[in-house]
Design a protein that fits this description.
115 residues; seven-stranded mixed β-sheet; globular
């Protein structure tokens, strides 16, 4: 059973930074795609950032230049560094991984950006 465990969420003031980390119970070499989604209150879940197997990545337009996704194949983690956070970034953030047709999700980590 694959498990993805998130950590690093919390409360931060506008302009601040947080780092989300997702630890996989298996080697991340098993996954093609790894990334982060978020669901803000009253909104649909949306893709925030995705890291692809061969090194490319994709970001939602509103986070480009502020968020950075990275994989650590030694630690079996995918990390989302979030800088210049704004209140509209407030959401539950979910770690995601895909291996072929199989998809896996973390339990979610709350990020709140508020003065």
């Amino acid at each position: 059973q694959v498990q993805l465990e998130e950590s690093g969420g919390g409360l931060v003031q506008p302009g601040g930074s947080l780092r989300l980390s997702c630890l996989s119970s298996i080697s991340i070499f098993s996954f093609n795609d790894m990334g982060w989604y978020r669901r803000a209150p009253g909104k649909e879940r949306e893709l925030v950032a995705m890291s692809y197997r061969y090194g490319s990545s994709k970001y939602e337009d509103s986070v480009k230049g502020r968020f950075t996704i990275s994989r650590d194949r030694v630690k079996n983690t995918v990390t989302l560094q979030m800088n210049s956070l704004q209140p509209e970034d407030t959401a539950v953030y979910f770690c995601y991984a895909a291996a072929g047709i199989d998809e896996y999700w973390g339990q979610g980590s709350q990020v709140t950006v508020s003065p």
